[in-house]
Specification:
Elements: H1 2-27, E1 31-35, E2 40-45, H2 59-70, H3 80-85, H4 93-100, E3 101-106, E4 112-119, E5 121-125, E6 134-136, E7 144-145, H5 148-151, E8 155-158, E9 164-166, H6 170-174, E10 184-186, H7 189-198, E11 200-205, E12 210-219, H8 227-233, H9 244-253, H10 258-263, E13 269-274, E14 291-293, E15 304-310, E16 317-326, E17 336-343, H11 345-353, E18 355-365
Parallel strand pairs: 4-17, 5-11, 14-16
Antiparallel strand pairs: 1-2, 2-3, 3-18, 4-18, 5-10, 6-10, 7-8, 8-9, 11-12, 12-13, 14-17, 15-16, 15-18
């Protein structure tokens, strides 16, 4: 009887141990809530070995982009250990990520929407001529910022009666000569419009034989309105054909309607010359294919993200590691990512076509799981 008791005891004991091991093994793969910034996310920890696409990403480009994020303190503190090792040449690029990070699948009832952006590259002149007539307008000296709680608006001008009034919308700005010396002149009003939408770009000055970088100088304070949505609402374009290249083609076919359509967006961005190319809100230069804009309430700057979506041109599966280095006015919520394709016309074509449901894995330091 005593033998039977011990036999039963050890049988139940080993069963309990097996249950605990299996439970914790499964629990580590169960969805959990993590707060990396100010808002929680639903994540599910997995392994790199479980990701079929992990073997096909550009580890070197991703590490270079991550190293840029490590150069500033404007990043998540939990990345400190990985940042301290990012320059360790004894670790190859793939091993670096596998040694200090582990993937966490972004779990949600609704899919993630991935869009794209780019840095436009235009041809222009420093001085105006008969072909280059579209002025890249600098911030005017009469534009001032005011307290919205007092005036009801943020960007203003003082009129002839010394009254503070809202700064004019796009149509009024473009109907008058530039108040200050333009940064440069370009030939195409639509390209200039997209330059303003993207917020930064580069201009090859043919009269100076050099390239300059331009970016945000100031805005007029009016809300941004999509001209794509306006074209669709008026029956001038179909939603399934909407892209930046399609808008440019429509503009060439309807030159008399173009000013009306562009002026539908009352927002106007004044620009300034910069020392470097596209820079994200984190304060570091953006890396083509390895930078993205996020809502930093959910994902802090510097976090590596592996995204998977259909390639906008080839329609084949596309997977890459990108670093959270930027944010945008339209990138709101935990299910939004804006992917940086790079600069120039090809990047612009890809960005214009990028609007897809995708899958995200946040690469988080292993120290967070300890």
């Amino acid at each position: 009887m005593q033998k039977a008791f011990f036999s039963s005891f050890w049988t139940h004991f080993f069963a309990l141990v097996t249950f605990v091991v299996l439970f914790w093994g499964c629990a580590s793969r169960m969805p959990h809530t993590a707060t990396l910034s100010s808002q929680p996310l639903a994540l599910q920890k997995t392994t790199f070995d479980a990701l079929d696409t992990w073997q096909s990403v550009d580890y070197a480009g991703a590490r270079q982009s991550f190293q840029a994020s490590c150069s500033t303190k404007n990043r998540a503190a939990f990345l400190d250990e990985a940042c301290a090792k990012v320059s360790d040449t004894t670790l190859d690029n793939k091993t670096f990520f596998e040694s200090y990070f582990e993937p966490h699948l972004w779990v949600d009832e609704k899919p993630v929407l991935i869009t794209g952006y780019y840095e436009p590259a235009l041809i222009g002149r420093r001085t105006r001529d008969e072909n280059y007539t579209v002025a890249i307008r600098a911030k005017p000296r009469d534009l001032i910022r005011v307290d919205k709680s007092i005036y009801g608006f943020t960007h203003a001008i003082v009129d002839a009666n010394f009254t503070v009034i809202p700064y004019p919308p796009r149509e009024v700005i473009l109907s008058t000569p530039p108040r200050d010396t333009p940064v440069a002149y370009v030939a195409d009003a639509v390209e200039y419009f997209f330059l303003q939408v993207q917020g930064s770009g580069r201009i090859d000055l043919i009269d100076e034989n050099r390239t300059i970088f331009v970016g945000y100088g100031e805005k007029n304070g009016h809300s941004y309105t999509s001209i794509g949505a306006y074209l669709i609402a008026n029956g001038w374009m179909q939603e399934h054909n909407m892209s930046m290249s399609a808008i440019q083609a429509w503009a060439q076919e309807h030159p008399t309607l173009l000013p009306h359509v562009l002026n539908h967006n009352k927002s106007f961005l004044f620009m300034r010359e910069k020392n470097q190319g596209a820079t994200g809100a984190q304060g570091v230069p953006l890396t083509p294919l390895h930078s993205c804009a996020v809502d930093t309430r959910y994902i802090p700057f510097g976090v590596p993200i592996m995204l998977s979506m259909p390639h906008p041109k080839e329609r084949t599966p596309y997977t890459q590691i990108t670093i959270a280095q930027d944010r945008g006015a339209a990138i709101l919520g935990e299910r939004r990512i804006d992917y940086f394709w790079g600069f120039g016309h090809e990047a612009g074509a890809l960005a214009g076509r990028t609007k897809a449901q995708g899958t995200l894995w946040l690469l988080l330091p292993k120290t967070l799981s300890r």
